[in-house]
Amino acid sequence: MRRLLALFLFGALALAAPIRQVVVEGGDPVLQALARAALPFGEGDEPGDLEAARKAILETGYFRDARLFLEGDVLKVVLTPYPPIAEVRVEAKAFPEENLLRFLEENYALGKEATYNPLRAQEAAQGLSRAYRQNGFPFAPKVEVEAKEAGGRMVLTFRVAEAPEVKEVRLQGATLLPEEDLLKLLAPLKGPFDFAKYQEALRAIAGRYEEAGYRFSGPDPEASALEDGLLTVRVREVRVVGVEGEGLDLAGFPLKAGDFLHYPRLLEGVQALSKALSRVVNFTLVPEGEGVVVRLEAGPEGGGIARVELTGNTAFPPETLLALLRLKPGEVYTPALAQEDARRIALFYQEKGLQVADVRYGFQDGVFRLEVVELKIGGYRLEWQGDHRTREEVILRELPRPGSLFSVAELRKAIARLLATGLLAEPPRVSLAPGGSPDQALVVLGLKEARTGLFQPAIGWSSLEGWSGSLSFKEANLFGLAHQVSLDLSFVQNEARDNLSFSASYAIPWLYLDYLDLKEVRTSLSFGVFSTPIGNNKLLQGPTDTGWEYTERRTGGSLSLSRPFSKDLDNLRLTLGLAARRSAFALEVYDPKAPCDATGADPTRPCDPGSQTYKDPAYVKTLLPAPGWTLRLDTGATYLDVDDPRFRTQGYEASLATGLGLSLPDTGGRSFFVPLVATGKTYLGLDPEKRQALAFRLSAGTLLGFPPESERFFLSGGG
């Protein structure tokens, strides 16, 4: 019995022996260290519950499976980690994807080549939702995570539900301004939630409060919320809790406790105190509860302003900017008021679409000095997404020149011109980077090149026309210079058996040469050649229909030059064109239903074939128009004043086209003719978003002189 008890005790001691070594297999060294740290026991400890230890390792989220077992006094851990991440995507529009990806990588270690962790992915989704709320969203959007394994690697996709339906909009806390006026600013938010429109509406409300003088009042994004389709925008209107100023007579101060904080009245009070005391008066706003305490403090003696000096302003005359200032000759210089004047100048520039790098101010010897540091374009940096052929000069020539004032309006016009070239697949992303000096900014454009080539073969058959085919090639960015080339070849059945049609053209939208003003004024050059049949023309003898039809083949070429009148008058565009065309004519198959006179009363239309009748092809050929050449010199002028050349919703357009034509038939002789066409257009927008418009056009034209039959034209079509 004693021997059996001793044996049992020895076995128990053996089972409880401490772990001499922990061996971890699978995963990289970092993951192995993570698994070791997760173990509830280690080397030198007595082994505990292995299943609990396994769960502790799996709870880190980095491992798909883990096996733990003892081999004597050695604890073996075999890990099966999740695959590495091949790519992380965020499907969202409110914020740039690169910013969201950086947020996920820096805060949750979710990036390319990192080990996939489903727990971290869910935490990241929740964190991303909170980040949206903290960055201005009136709700925490739902974020779904999709993890797909492909080729032993994971692709993570975060989908942010940014656009729940807004069914109703309410405003809370607005008493200083008419609520109905503010609600009009929020009305466009109904429908799918749009963060950009939401921010624009909040800025508009804040601007209304600013215009009314309540600078620190306005929308409170943190207190605003979107719940169950109801968007509630909370407005915070700041009151004055108290006015303090040791040793100052505040009896006439325009702000009292309980008043709403009206910033212009605050400045008026400070200015009046400063002038009365001939001293600088400073103020601070101390938050207290939902309001502020205005603390006034008399400073050193202030100098009287004898003169105001303004420098650095080139965009506006001095008198325009001086009228904005509160500090004028006769006032006491106060830094707080000087700062406000500098701010007023900066805001004025901003309202006009310009920017200032700084407005420096100072006071010396009775002179209040303001130096406006206007922001200029220091240059451009083009960041292409993917491969591109377009040369930089093609992009840069559309943009405002380096050294010019940075103007939002001019930059928008330049981007519209870029998009009109068809070279870009999407509107460029625009950002600013520091330039070479404080008054310069580097404009950074993110560009993606569009596909500009087209090769289109086609073949067809119909029971009426038989076989037909066409071959078309177009390229709008030849040599990366935005040159445009077009080749078209087609085969269409024709009753005159004149089946082939060909045309080729080459256009240079901007003749960008270092000669005269060609680099300053967009001058375009185009030329083309063609040979095209035009069938089914009725053959008439005077007013009589012969029953025959003919085909006219037009073969020729053209050259056209177009440019604005000048750099400063680019709305007025002039065009000069030269064209030469030869016309040849061929009879088509005879129409058996041709009119005839069976009574014989009209000898010109007998029903029996014979010489010199409409049944005689040899005779009918003599009725065809005479082949010959037509030369034309065309001129035109177009004046365009519209809101957007790509989609016009307001404005007008007027054009006048004329020229001189010379007809030279092969039978001899010549004749001159003058075409004259005048056109007017106007546009009427149908909605504030400018997505719909009505266009009205009025055209009038005539032909003077003796034009050939083929020069007849009709006023119709669109554009």
TrEMBL record:
Keyword terms, alphabetized: Cell outer membrane, Membrane, Signal, Transmembrane
Top-level taxon in the UniProt lineage: Bacteria
Residue ranges constituting the Bacterial surface antigen (D15) domain according to the UniProt record: 477-718
Compartments (UniProt record): Membrane
Entry GO terms, CC: outer membrane
Sequence ranges assigned to domain POTRA in this UniProt record: 85-162, 305-360
Polypeptide-transport-associated ShlB-type domain span: 166-237
InterPro entries given in the database record: Bac_surfAg_D15 (IPR000184), BamA/TamA_POTRA (IPR010827), D15-like (IPR039910), Polypept-transport_assoc_ShlB (IPR013686)
Signal peptide location: 1-16
Endoplasmic reticulum found in the keyword field: no
Xref: PANTHER family: SORTING AND ASSEMBLY MACHINERY SAMM50 PROTEIN FAMILY MEMBER, TRANSLOCATION AND ASSEMBLY MODULE SUBUNIT TAMA
Protein name in UniProt: Outer membrane protein assembly factor
Species name: Thermus islandicus
